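User: Predict the complex.
Assistant: Input components as received:
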Amino acid sequence: MRTTVRVYWRLLRAGFQRQSAYRLAALGGLVANTTFGLLKVAVLFATVRAAGGSLAGYDVGRMGTYVWISQAMLGSVNLHGRTDIAERIKDGRVAVDFLRPLDVQAAEITTEVGRSLFALIPRGLPMIAIGAVVGMAAPESAAAYPLGVLSVLLGIVISSATAYLVGVAGFWLVETRGLQVCYMVVSGFLAGLFVPIQLFPRWLLLVAHASPFPSMMMYPIEILSGRVGLAGALALLGAQLAWLAGVGGLGQALTRAGRRHLEVQGG
Amino acid sequence: MSAIVEAEGLTRQFTVRDGARRRRVLAVDDLTTRISAGEAVGYIGANGAGKSTTIKMLTGILVPTSGTVTTCGLRPVKDRRRLAREVGVVFGQRSQLWWDLPVRESFRILAAIHTLSAAAERARTEELVERLELAGFLAVPVRQLSLGQRMRAEVAAALLHSPRLVILDEPTIGLDVLSKQRLREFLVAERRAHGTTLLLTTHDMGDVERLCDRVLLIDHGRLVYDGDLAGLSRTAGAERVLTVDLTAPSADLTGIPAARHLSSEANGLRQRLAFDAESTTAARVFAAVAERAEVVDFTVEEPDIEDVVRRIYAARR
Protein backbone atom coordinates (compact mmCIF):
# COMPACT_ATOMS: atom_id res chain seq x y z
CA MET A 1 0.00 0.00 0.00
CA ARG A 2 2.73 2.44 1.00
CA THR A 3 4.72 1.63 -2.11
CA THR A 4 1.59 2.15 -4.24
CA VAL A 5 1.09 5.58 -2.71
CA ARG A 6 4.74 6.39 -3.41
CA VAL A 7 4.43 5.37 -7.07
CA TYR A 8 1.34 7.45 -7.74
CA TRP A 9 2.76 10.37 -5.76
CA ARG A 10 5.74 10.29 -8.13
CA LEU A 11 3.44 10.26 -11.15
CA LEU A 12 1.45 13.16 -9.73
CA ARG A 13 4.65 15.12 -9.25
CA ALA A 14 5.79 14.16 -12.74
CA GLY A 15 2.61 15.59 -14.22
CA PHE A 16 3.07 18.70 -12.13
CA GLN A 17 6.68 19.12 -13.28
CA ARG A 18 5.82 18.47 -16.91
CA GLN A 19 3.29 21.24 -16.89
CA SER A 20 5.73 23.58 -15.19
CA ALA A 21 7.95 23.29 -18.27
CA TYR A 22 5.45 25.33 -20.27
CA ARG A 23 5.51 28.76 -18.66
CA LEU A 24 4.63 30.75 -21.74
CA ALA A 25 1.52 28.64 -22.32
CA ALA A 26 0.53 29.28 -18.72
CA LEU A 27 0.90 33.02 -19.26
CA GLY A 28 -1.21 32.87 -22.42
CA GLY A 29 -3.87 30.96 -20.53
CA LEU A 30 -3.83 33.54 -17.77
CA VAL A 31 -4.42 36.40 -20.17
CA ALA A 32 -7.30 34.55 -21.87
CA ASN A 33 -8.86 33.58 -18.54
CA THR A 34 -8.76 37.17 -17.29
CA THR A 35 -10.25 38.59 -20.47
CA PHE A 36 -13.11 36.13 -20.52
CA GLY A 37 -13.60 36.59 -16.79
CA LEU A 38 -14.16 40.33 -17.24
CA LEU A 39 -16.51 39.62 -20.13
CA LYS A 40 -18.52 37.20 -18.01
CA VAL A 41 -18.66 39.78 -15.22
CA ALA A 42 -20.08 42.41 -17.60
CA VAL A 43 -22.76 40.13 -19.06
CA LEU A 44 -23.79 38.26 -15.93
CA PHE A 45 -23.81 41.25 -13.56
CA ALA A 46 -26.07 43.05 -16.06
CA THR A 47 -28.33 40.01 -16.12
CA VAL A 48 -28.57 39.88 -12.32
CA ARG A 49 -29.31 43.60 -12.12
CA ALA A 50 -31.94 43.32 -14.86
CA ALA A 51 -33.58 40.53 -12.85
CA GLY A 52 -33.90 42.91 -9.90
CA GLY A 53 -30.69 42.10 -7.99
CA SER A 54 -31.16 38.37 -7.52
CA LEU A 55 -31.42 35.52 -9.99
CA ALA A 56 -31.74 31.82 -9.12
CA GLY A 57 -30.03 32.39 -5.80
CA TYR A 58 -27.28 34.58 -7.27
CA ASP A 59 -26.84 38.19 -6.25
CA VAL A 60 -24.02 40.28 -7.69
CA GLY A 61 -21.55 39.11 -5.01
CA ARG A 62 -22.21 35.42 -5.54
CA MET A 63 -22.18 35.91 -9.29
CA GLY A 64 -18.71 37.43 -8.85
CA THR A 65 -17.63 34.32 -6.95
CA TYR A 66 -19.10 32.17 -9.69
CA VAL A 67 -17.22 34.03 -12.41
CA TRP A 68 -13.80 34.07 -10.81
CA ILE A 69 -13.83 30.55 -9.44
CA SER A 70 -15.04 29.14 -12.75
CA GLN A 71 -12.23 31.08 -14.47
CA ALA A 72 -9.73 29.85 -11.87
CA MET A 73 -10.72 26.23 -12.48
CA LEU A 74 -10.77 26.52 -16.25
CA GLY A 75 -7.09 25.68 -16.69
CA SER A 76 -7.36 22.63 -14.44
CA VAL A 77 -10.71 21.04 -15.22
CA ASN A 78 -10.66 19.14 -18.48
CA LEU A 79 -13.55 20.62 -20.44
CA HIS A 80 -11.92 20.08 -23.83
CA GLY A 81 -11.70 16.29 -23.91
CA ARG A 82 -8.15 16.24 -25.24
CA THR A 83 -5.96 13.68 -23.49
CA ASP A 84 -2.50 12.30 -23.85
CA ILE A 85 -3.83 8.74 -23.78
CA ALA A 86 -5.91 9.36 -26.92
CA GLU A 87 -2.74 10.31 -28.79
CA ARG A 88 -0.85 7.35 -27.39
CA ILE A 89 -3.54 4.88 -28.41
CA LYS A 90 -3.65 6.38 -31.88
CA ASP A 91 0.09 6.21 -32.54
CA GLY A 92 0.77 3.02 -30.60
CA ARG A 93 2.80 4.57 -27.76
CA VAL A 94 0.22 3.07 -25.42
CA ALA A 95 2.26 -0.14 -25.76
CA VAL A 96 4.73 1.43 -23.34
CA ASP A 97 1.93 1.99 -20.79
CA PHE A 98 1.18 -1.71 -20.82
CA LEU A 99 4.86 -2.47 -20.17
CA ARG A 100 4.75 -0.87 -16.75
CA PRO A 101 3.66 -2.59 -13.58
CA LEU A 102 0.89 -0.04 -13.17
CA ASP A 103 -2.82 0.26 -13.65
CA VAL A 104 -2.97 2.10 -16.98
CA GLN A 105 -6.08 4.10 -16.07
CA ALA A 106 -4.92 5.10 -12.59
CA ALA A 107 -1.46 6.09 -13.87
CA GLU A 108 -2.91 8.21 -16.66
CA ILE A 109 -5.43 10.00 -14.47
CA THR A 110 -2.85 10.63 -11.77
CA THR A 111 -0.47 12.21 -14.26
CA GLU A 112 -3.21 14.39 -15.73
CA VAL A 113 -4.34 15.49 -12.27
CA GLY A 114 -0.73 16.43 -11.50
CA ARG A 115 -0.71 18.67 -14.57
CA SER A 116 -4.03 20.19 -13.55
CA LEU A 117 -2.81 20.93 -10.04
CA PHE A 118 0.16 22.79 -11.44
CA ALA A 119 -2.14 24.87 -13.62
CA LEU A 120 -3.89 26.11 -10.47
CA ILE A 121 -0.77 28.09 -9.59
CA PRO A 122 -0.25 30.24 -12.69
CA ARG A 123 -3.86 30.23 -13.88
CA GLY A 124 -6.00 29.60 -10.79
CA LEU A 125 -4.61 31.74 -7.98
CA PRO A 126 -4.38 34.98 -10.04
CA MET A 127 -8.10 34.64 -10.88
CA ILE A 128 -8.95 34.42 -7.20
CA ALA A 129 -6.78 37.49 -6.57
CA ILE A 130 -8.53 39.43 -9.33
CA GLY A 131 -11.88 38.29 -7.98
CA ALA A 132 -10.96 39.52 -4.51
CA VAL A 133 -10.24 42.95 -5.98
CA VAL A 134 -13.14 43.14 -8.45
CA GLY A 135 -15.55 41.75 -5.90
CA MET A 136 -16.82 38.33 -4.91
CA ALA A 137 -18.88 37.07 -2.00
CA ALA A 138 -17.47 34.76 0.66
CA PRO A 139 -19.45 31.82 2.03
CA GLU A 140 -21.04 32.32 5.46
CA SER A 141 -19.62 29.19 7.07
CA ALA A 142 -15.85 28.72 7.47
CA ALA A 143 -16.41 25.00 6.84
CA ALA A 144 -17.26 25.87 3.25
CA TYR A 145 -13.57 26.52 2.53
CA PRO A 146 -12.13 23.04 3.22
CA LEU A 147 -15.24 21.41 1.71
CA GLY A 148 -14.95 23.68 -1.31
CA VAL A 149 -11.26 22.88 -1.83
CA LEU A 150 -12.02 19.18 -1.56
CA SER A 151 -14.81 19.65 -4.07
CA VAL A 152 -12.47 21.47 -6.49
CA LEU A 153 -10.01 18.56 -6.29
CA LEU A 154 -12.80 16.05 -6.86
CA GLY A 155 -14.00 18.10 -9.83
CA ILE A 156 -10.52 17.98 -11.36
CA VAL A 157 -10.26 14.22 -10.85
CA ILE A 158 -13.76 13.59 -12.24
CA SER A 159 -12.98 15.64 -15.34
CA SER A 160 -9.74 13.70 -15.94
CA ALA A 161 -11.53 10.39 -15.44
CA THR A 162 -14.30 11.41 -17.84
CA ALA A 163 -11.95 12.74 -20.52
CA TYR A 164 -10.09 9.44 -20.14
CA LEU A 165 -13.25 7.70 -21.39
CA VAL A 166 -13.10 9.76 -24.58
CA GLY A 167 -9.46 8.76 -24.98
CA VAL A 168 -9.93 5.02 -24.55
CA ALA A 169 -12.79 5.05 -27.05
CA GLY A 170 -9.79 5.04 -29.39
CA PHE A 171 -9.42 1.33 -28.74
CA TRP A 172 -12.51 0.94 -30.94
CA LEU A 173 -12.52 4.08 -33.06
CA VAL A 174 -9.71 4.93 -35.42
CA GLU A 175 -10.18 8.63 -34.77
CA THR A 176 -11.62 10.08 -31.55
CA ARG A 177 -11.60 13.71 -32.63
CA GLY A 178 -15.30 13.81 -33.37
CA LEU A 179 -16.07 12.47 -29.94
CA GLN A 180 -13.61 14.91 -28.37
CA VAL A 181 -15.27 17.88 -30.08
CA CYS A 182 -18.71 16.70 -28.87
CA TYR A 183 -17.31 16.43 -25.37
CA MET A 184 -15.84 19.93 -25.63
CA VAL A 185 -19.12 21.48 -26.77
CA VAL A 186 -21.32 19.68 -24.24
CA SER A 187 -19.05 19.57 -21.20
CA GLY A 188 -18.32 23.29 -20.88
CA PHE A 189 -21.96 24.17 -21.26
CA LEU A 190 -23.32 21.57 -18.82
CA ALA A 191 -20.47 22.07 -16.35
CA GLY A 192 -21.64 25.67 -15.95
CA LEU A 193 -18.65 27.31 -17.57
CA PHE A 194 -20.66 29.94 -19.48
CA VAL A 195 -23.59 30.56 -17.13
CA PRO A 196 -24.52 28.91 -13.83
CA ILE A 197 -26.65 25.88 -14.67
CA GLN A 198 -29.38 27.17 -12.35
CA LEU A 199 -30.18 29.72 -15.06
CA PHE A 200 -31.01 26.88 -17.48
CA PRO A 201 -34.63 26.06 -18.30
CA ARG A 202 -35.86 23.19 -16.17
CA TRP A 203 -35.51 20.45 -18.80
CA LEU A 204 -31.92 21.45 -19.53
CA LEU A 205 -31.13 21.55 -15.85
CA LEU A 206 -32.36 17.95 -15.60
CA VAL A 207 -30.13 16.97 -18.53
CA ALA A 208 -27.17 18.62 -16.81
CA HIS A 209 -27.79 16.83 -13.54
CA ALA A 210 -28.01 13.52 -15.36
CA SER A 211 -24.41 14.07 -16.57
CA PRO A 212 -21.11 14.18 -14.68
CA PHE A 213 -20.32 17.67 -15.99
CA PRO A 214 -21.82 19.86 -13.22
CA SER A 215 -19.81 17.86 -10.68
CA MET A 216 -16.60 19.03 -12.39
CA MET A 217 -17.12 22.76 -11.92
CA MET A 218 -20.61 23.85 -10.85
CA TYR A 219 -20.75 21.92 -7.57
CA PRO A 220 -17.46 23.29 -6.16
CA ILE A 221 -18.61 26.81 -7.07
CA GLU A 222 -21.95 26.33 -5.33
CA ILE A 223 -20.08 25.31 -2.18
CA LEU A 224 -17.49 28.11 -2.34
CA SER A 225 -19.96 30.84 -3.22
CA GLY A 226 -22.17 29.88 -0.28
CA ARG A 227 -25.14 29.32 -2.55
CA VAL A 228 -25.67 26.04 -0.71
CA GLY A 229 -25.35 25.55 3.05
CA LEU A 230 -23.38 22.92 4.90
CA ALA A 231 -25.90 20.14 4.32
CA GLY A 232 -26.13 21.08 0.67
CA ALA A 233 -22.35 21.05 0.41
CA LEU A 234 -22.16 17.55 1.84
CA ALA A 235 -24.85 16.36 -0.56
CA LEU A 236 -22.90 17.81 -3.52
CA LEU A 237 -19.69 16.13 -2.33
CA GLY A 238 -21.61 12.86 -2.10
CA ALA A 239 -22.84 13.32 -5.66
CA GLN A 240 -19.26 14.00 -6.79
CA LEU A 241 -18.03 10.80 -5.18
CA ALA A 242 -20.81 8.87 -6.87
CA TRP A 243 -19.88 10.34 -10.27
CA LEU A 244 -16.21 9.57 -9.66
CA ALA A 245 -17.07 5.96 -8.85
CA GLY A 246 -19.25 5.81 -11.97
CA VAL A 247 -16.82 7.22 -14.53
CA GLY A 248 -13.87 5.52 -12.80
CA GLY A 249 -15.55 2.13 -12.92
CA LEU A 250 -16.55 2.61 -16.53
CA GLY A 251 -12.96 3.56 -17.38
CA GLN A 252 -11.66 0.38 -15.75
CA ALA A 253 -14.13 -1.73 -17.71
CA LEU A 254 -13.36 0.03 -21.01
CA THR A 255 -9.61 -0.29 -20.46
CA ARG A 256 -9.96 -4.01 -19.85
CA ALA A 257 -12.26 -4.57 -22.81
CA GLY A 258 -10.21 -2.27 -25.04
CA ARG A 259 -7.03 -4.25 -24.53
CA ARG A 260 -8.57 -7.13 -26.41
CA HIS A 261 -9.16 -4.72 -29.29
CA LEU A 262 -5.72 -3.21 -29.21
CA GLU A 263 -3.99 -3.55 -32.52
CA VAL A 264 -0.56 -2.03 -32.38
CA GLN A 265 0.81 -2.79 -35.76
CA GLY A 266 4.28 -2.15 -37.03
CA GLY A 267 7.07 -0.61 -35.05
CA MET B 1 18.30 -24.68 -18.09
CA SER B 2 15.03 -23.02 -17.16
CA ALA B 3 12.91 -21.53 -19.90
CA ILE B 4 12.40 -17.77 -20.02
CA VAL B 5 10.06 -17.86 -22.99
CA GLU B 6 7.89 -20.78 -24.03
CA ALA B 7 5.53 -20.25 -26.93
CA GLU B 8 3.27 -22.89 -28.34
CA GLY B 9 1.19 -22.43 -31.44
CA LEU B 10 1.26 -18.68 -30.82
CA THR B 11 -0.93 -16.93 -33.38
CA ARG B 12 -2.16 -13.39 -33.89
CA GLN B 13 -4.54 -12.17 -36.52
CA PHE B 14 -5.16 -8.57 -37.46
CA THR B 15 -8.04 -7.06 -39.34
CA VAL B 16 -6.80 -4.73 -42.04
CA ARG B 17 -9.11 -2.23 -43.69
CA ASP B 18 -8.51 -2.39 -47.38
CA GLY B 19 -10.71 0.35 -48.75
CA ALA B 20 -14.23 -0.66 -47.81
CA ARG B 21 -13.36 -4.33 -47.35
CA ARG B 22 -11.76 -5.90 -44.35
CA ARG B 23 -9.05 -8.47 -44.69
CA ARG B 24 -7.65 -10.80 -42.09
CA VAL B 25 -3.88 -10.90 -41.85
CA LEU B 26 -1.92 -13.50 -39.93
CA ALA B 27 0.85 -11.46 -38.32
CA VAL B 28 2.17 -14.40 -36.33
CA ASP B 29 1.28 -17.89 -37.41
CA ASP B 30 1.62 -20.92 -35.17
CA LEU B 31 4.90 -19.97 -33.53
CA THR B 32 6.41 -22.60 -31.26
CA THR B 33 9.75 -21.94 -29.64
CA ARG B 34 11.61 -21.94 -26.35
CA ILE B 35 14.26 -19.55 -25.07
CA SER B 36 16.39 -20.60 -22.10
CA ALA B 37 17.70 -18.35 -19.37
CA GLY B 38 20.94 -16.65 -20.35
CA GLU B 39 20.55 -17.06 -24.10
CA ALA B 40 21.01 -14.21 -26.56
CA VAL B 41 18.60 -14.60 -29.42
CA GLY B 42 18.36 -12.57 -32.60
CA TYR B 43 14.87 -12.41 -34.01
CA ILE B 44 15.10 -11.41 -37.64
CA GLY B 45 12.86 -11.03 -40.63
CA ALA B 46 11.61 -8.44 -43.10
CA ASN B 47 9.36 -5.52 -42.19
CA GLY B 48 5.92 -6.82 -41.39
CA ALA B 49 7.17 -10.37 -40.87
CA GLY B 50 5.67 -10.43 -37.37
CA LYS B 51 8.61 -9.66 -35.11
CA SER B 52 7.11 -6.77 -33.17
CA THR B 53 3.77 -8.53 -32.85
CA THR B 54 5.51 -11.53 -31.31
CA ILE B 55 7.29 -9.30 -28.82
CA LYS B 56 4.05 -7.59 -27.89
CA MET B 57 2.47 -10.94 -27.18
CA LEU B 58 5.45 -12.09 -25.10
CA THR B 59 5.14 -8.98 -22.94
CA GLY B 60 1.36 -8.96 -22.55
CA ILE B 61 0.67 -5.86 -24.66
CA LEU B 62 -1.23 -7.79 -27.29
CA VAL B 63 -3.64 -10.63 -26.68
CA PRO B 64 -2.89 -13.71 -28.84
CA THR B 65 -5.63 -14.90 -31.16
CA SER B 66 -4.73 -18.47 -30.25
CA GLY B 67 -1.90 -20.51 -28.77
CA THR B 68 -0.14 -20.04 -25.46
CA VAL B 69 2.94 -18.23 -24.25
CA THR B 70 4.72 -18.15 -20.92
CA THR B 71 7.31 -15.48 -20.20
CA CYS B 72 9.47 -15.72 -17.07
CA GLY B 73 7.01 -18.37 -15.89
CA LEU B 74 4.07 -15.93 -16.08
CA ARG B 75 1.11 -15.58 -18.42
CA PRO B 76 1.78 -12.24 -20.11
CA VAL B 77 -1.76 -10.88 -20.44
CA LYS B 78 -3.12 -12.12 -17.14
CA ASP B 79 0.01 -11.37 -15.09
CA ARG B 80 1.00 -8.28 -17.06
CA ARG B 81 1.92 -6.15 -14.08
CA ARG B 82 3.99 -8.84 -12.39
CA LEU B 83 5.72 -9.65 -15.65
CA ALA B 84 6.60 -5.98 -16.14
CA ARG B 85 8.93 -6.29 -13.15
CA GLU B 86 10.85 -9.16 -14.80
CA VAL B 87 11.14 -7.80 -18.32
CA GLY B 88 12.77 -4.70 -19.74
CA VAL B 89 11.81 -3.63 -23.23
CA VAL B 90 13.42 -1.09 -25.52
CA PHE B 91 11.39 -0.05 -28.52
CA GLY B 92 13.78 1.68 -30.89
CA GLN B 93 10.97 3.80 -32.27
CA ARG B 94 8.97 4.53 -29.12
CA SER B 95 10.18 6.36 -26.08
CA GLN B 96 9.44 5.36 -22.54
CA LEU B 97 11.06 8.44 -21.09
CA TRP B 98 9.10 11.51 -20.07
CA TRP B 99 9.56 13.77 -23.02
CA ASP B 100 9.53 17.10 -21.20
CA LEU B 101 11.41 16.05 -18.05
CA PRO B 102 15.17 15.72 -17.49
CA VAL B 103 16.60 12.22 -18.03
CA ARG B 104 17.38 11.88 -14.34
CA GLU B 105 13.75 12.52 -13.44
CA SER B 106 12.56 9.74 -15.77
CA PHE B 107 14.90 7.36 -13.98
CA ARG B 108 13.50 8.47 -10.62
CA ILE B 109 9.92 7.91 -11.70
CA LEU B 110 10.75 4.51 -13.15
CA ALA B 111 12.58 3.54 -9.97
CA ALA B 112 9.45 4.46 -8.02
CA ILE B 113 7.25 2.56 -10.45
CA HIS B 114 9.40 -0.52 -9.97
CA THR B 115 9.53 0.10 -6.20
CA LEU B 116 13.32 0.01 -6.01
CA SER B 117 14.73 0.79 -2.58
CA ALA B 118 16.64 4.05 -2.32
CA ALA B 119 19.94 2.16 -2.07
CA ALA B 120 19.16 -0.13 -5.03
CA GLU B 121 18.06 2.88 -7.07
CA ARG B 122 21.28 4.74 -6.38
CA ALA B 123 23.55 1.77 -7.08
CA ARG B 124 21.83 0.74 -10.29
CA THR B 125 21.53 4.30 -11.62
CA GLU B 126 25.23 4.89 -10.96
CA GLU B 127 26.14 1.65 -12.72
CA LEU B 128 24.07 2.47 -15.79
CA VAL B 129 25.14 6.11 -15.93
CA GLU B 130 28.76 5.05 -15.91
CA ARG B 131 28.52 2.16 -18.34
CA LEU B 132 26.28 3.96 -20.83
CA GLU B 133 28.07 7.28 -20.36
CA LEU B 134 24.99 9.26 -19.48
CA ALA B 135 26.53 11.65 -16.97
CA GLY B 136 26.84 14.49 -19.48
CA PHE B 137 23.12 14.87 -20.10
CA LEU B 138 21.28 13.66 -16.99
CA ALA B 139 19.87 17.12 -16.37
CA VAL B 140 18.77 17.69 -19.98
CA PRO B 141 15.09 17.26 -20.94
CA VAL B 142 14.62 14.19 -23.10
CA ARG B 143 13.26 16.19 -26.04
CA GLN B 144 16.62 17.93 -26.39
CA LEU B 145 18.74 14.76 -26.63
CA SER B 146 20.38 13.51 -29.81
CA LEU B 147 19.16 10.15 -31.05
CA GLY B 148 22.30 8.39 -29.81
CA GLN B 149 21.97 9.93 -26.36
CA ARG B 150 18.28 9.16 -26.21
CA MET B 151 18.77 5.51 -27.13
CA ARG B 152 21.35 5.09 -24.39
CA ALA B 153 18.94 6.68 -21.95
CA GLU B 154 16.15 4.40 -23.22
CA VAL B 155 18.29 1.33 -22.65
CA ALA B 156 19.15 2.50 -19.14
CA ALA B 157 15.45 3.13 -18.45
CA ALA B 158 14.52 -0.37 -19.59
CA LEU B 159 17.26 -1.98 -17.52
CA LEU B 160 16.92 0.10 -14.37
CA HIS B 161 14.96 -2.58 -12.53
CA SER B 162 17.52 -5.26 -13.48
CA PRO B 163 15.10 -7.39 -15.52
CA ARG B 164 15.83 -11.06 -16.15
CA LEU B 165 14.76 -10.75 -19.76
CA VAL B 166 15.71 -7.79 -21.92
CA ILE B 167 13.89 -7.36 -25.20
CA LEU B 168 15.24 -4.90 -27.71
CA ASP B 169 13.11 -4.01 -30.69
CA GLU B 170 15.44 -2.53 -33.29
CA PRO B 171 17.64 -0.80 -30.74
CA THR B 172 20.28 0.44 -33.16
CA ILE B 173 17.94 1.86 -35.80
CA GLY B 174 19.25 5.20 -37.01
CA LEU B 175 22.37 5.14 -34.85
CA ASP B 176 25.81 5.99 -36.22
CA VAL B 177 28.54 3.36 -36.26
CA LEU B 178 30.16 4.53 -33.03
CA SER B 179 26.88 4.67 -31.10
CA LYS B 180 25.96 1.18 -32.32
CA GLN B 181 29.34 -0.11 -31.26
CA ARG B 182 29.00 1.38 -27.77
CA LEU B 183 25.53 0.02 -27.30
CA ARG B 184 26.57 -3.47 -28.35
CA GLU B 185 29.56 -3.40 -26.01
CA PHE B 186 27.29 -2.38 -23.18
CA LEU B 187 24.87 -5.22 -23.87
CA VAL B 188 27.66 -7.77 -23.98
CA ALA B 189 28.98 -6.48 -20.64
CA GLU B 190 25.51 -6.41 -19.10
CA ARG B 191 24.94 -10.03 -20.06
CA ARG B 192 28.27 -11.08 -18.67
CA ALA B 193 27.71 -9.24 -15.39
CA HIS B 194 24.08 -10.20 -14.73
CA GLY B 195 23.37 -13.27 -16.86
CA THR B 196 20.54 -11.40 -18.54
CA THR B 197 18.60 -13.13 -21.30
CA LEU B 198 18.54 -11.10 -24.48
CA LEU B 199 15.97 -11.12 -27.26
CA LEU B 200 16.71 -8.76 -30.08
CA THR B 201 14.80 -7.89 -33.22
CA THR B 202 16.84 -6.10 -35.79
CA HIS B 203 17.52 -5.38 -39.42
CA ASP B 204 21.14 -4.77 -38.58
CA MET B 205 23.04 -7.96 -39.10
CA GLY B 206 25.97 -6.50 -37.22
CA ASP B 207 23.79 -6.64 -34.11
CA VAL B 208 23.11 -10.32 -34.65
CA GLU B 209 26.71 -11.19 -35.45
CA ARG B 210 28.12 -9.44 -32.41
CA LEU B 211 25.43 -10.11 -29.84
CA CYS B 212 23.53 -13.29 -30.55
CA ASP B 213 24.37 -16.97 -30.34
CA ARG B 214 21.06 -18.06 -31.78
CA VAL B 215 18.89 -16.80 -34.60
CA LEU B 216 15.17 -17.11 -35.19
CA LEU B 217 14.10 -16.16 -38.70
CA ILE B 218 10.47 -15.36 -39.31
CA ASP B 219 8.74 -14.94 -42.65
CA HIS B 220 5.07 -13.98 -42.99
CA GLY B 221 4.50 -14.87 -39.37
CA ARG B 222 6.04 -18.30 -39.65
CA LEU B 223 9.25 -19.46 -38.05
CA VAL B 224 11.48 -20.62 -40.89
CA TYR B 225 14.82 -21.05 -39.17
CA ASP B 226 15.98 -21.66 -35.61
CA GLY B 227 19.68 -22.25 -34.99
CA ASP B 228 23.09 -20.58 -35.05
CA LEU B 229 24.28 -18.07 -37.64
CA ALA B 230 26.64 -20.44 -39.45
CA GLY B 231 23.80 -22.89 -39.85
CA LEU B 232 21.65 -20.15 -41.33
CA SER B 233 24.18 -19.60 -44.11
CA ARG B 234 24.41 -23.34 -44.73
CA THR B 235 20.63 -23.64 -44.94
CA ALA B 236 20.53 -20.97 -47.56
CA GLY B 237 23.40 -22.50 -49.49
CA ALA B 238 25.08 -19.12 -49.35
CA GLU B 239 28.39 -18.82 -51.10
CA ARG B 240 31.71 -17.44 -49.97
CA VAL B 241 33.49 -15.18 -52.40
CA LEU B 242 37.23 -15.22 -53.22
CA THR B 243 38.63 -12.04 -54.74
CA VAL B 244 42.09 -12.26 -56.31
CA ASP B 245 44.37 -9.53 -57.64
CA LEU B 246 46.65 -10.83 -60.39
CA THR B 247 50.03 -9.57 -61.62
CA ALA B 248 48.90 -9.33 -65.24
CA PRO B 249 45.59 -8.97 -67.07
CA SER B 250 44.22 -12.48 -67.56
CA ALA B 251 41.31 -14.23 -69.18
CA ASP B 252 38.30 -15.02 -67.01
CA LEU B 253 39.12 -17.79 -64.54
CA THR B 254 36.31 -20.10 -65.53
CA GLY B 255 36.23 -23.85 -65.04
CA ILE B 256 37.72 -24.00 -61.58
CA PRO B 257 36.22 -27.03 -59.77
CA ALA B 258 33.28 -26.24 -57.45
CA ALA B 259 33.69 -22.49 -58.05
CA ARG B 260 31.87 -20.02 -60.25
CA HIS B 261 33.39 -16.99 -61.94
CA LEU B 262 31.48 -13.89 -60.86
CA SER B 263 33.21 -10.90 -62.41
CA SER B 264 36.42 -9.45 -63.76
CA GLU B 265 37.70 -5.88 -63.47
CA ALA B 266 40.48 -4.02 -65.27
CA ASN B 267 40.93 -6.60 -68.04
CA GLY B 268 40.96 -9.43 -65.51
CA LEU B 269 43.46 -7.90 -63.06
CA ARG B 270 40.90 -8.41 -60.33
CA GLN B 271 38.55 -11.35 -60.46
CA ARG B 272 35.84 -12.66 -58.14
CA LEU B 273 34.91 -16.33 -57.69
CA ALA B 274 32.02 -17.70 -55.67
CA PHE B 275 32.12 -21.12 -54.08
CA ASP B 276 29.96 -23.19 -51.80
CA ALA B 277 31.55 -23.76 -48.41
CA GLU B 278 30.01 -27.23 -48.24
CA SER B 279 31.65 -28.65 -51.37
CA THR B 280 35.10 -27.06 -51.37
CA THR B 281 37.47 -24.91 -49.31
CA ALA B 282 38.98 -21.49 -49.88
CA ALA B 283 42.43 -23.13 -49.99
CA ARG B 284 41.46 -25.49 -52.79
CA VAL B 285 39.95 -22.74 -54.90
CA PHE B 286 42.97 -20.54 -54.28
CA ALA B 287 45.37 -23.34 -55.28
CA ALA B 288 43.46 -23.87 -58.51
CA VAL B 289 43.65 -20.15 -59.28
CA ALA B 290 47.36 -19.99 -58.46
CA GLU B 291 48.04 -22.74 -61.03
CA ARG B 292 46.65 -20.54 -63.77
CA ALA B 293 47.82 -17.06 -62.82
CA GLU B 294 50.21 -15.28 -60.50
CA VAL B 295 48.32 -13.86 -57.50
CA VAL B 296 49.39 -10.64 -55.76
CA ASP B 297 46.69 -10.38 -53.17
CA PHE B 298 43.39 -12.00 -52.19
CA THR B 299 40.42 -11.70 -49.81
CA VAL B 300 37.66 -14.10 -48.81
CA GLU B 301 34.21 -12.64 -48.07
CA GLU B 302 31.86 -14.50 -45.81
CA PRO B 303 28.22 -14.62 -46.91
CA ASP B 304 26.29 -11.50 -46.06
CA ILE B 305 23.45 -12.43 -43.73
CA GLU B 306 21.03 -10.10 -45.41
CA ASP B 307 21.77 -11.96 -48.59
CA VAL B 308 21.21 -15.23 -46.76
CA VAL B 309 17.83 -14.03 -45.52
CA ARG B 310 16.91 -12.90 -49.02
CA ARG B 311 17.78 -16.32 -50.36
CA ILE B 312 15.69 -18.10 -47.77
CA TYR B 313 12.76 -15.82 -48.48
CA ALA B 314 13.15 -16.29 -52.25
CA ALA B 315 13.29 -20.07 -51.89
CA ARG B 316 9.97 -20.01 -50.01
CA ARG B 317 8.05 -18.00 -52.59
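Chain A has one domain: 2-259.
Let me know if you want any component modeled separately.
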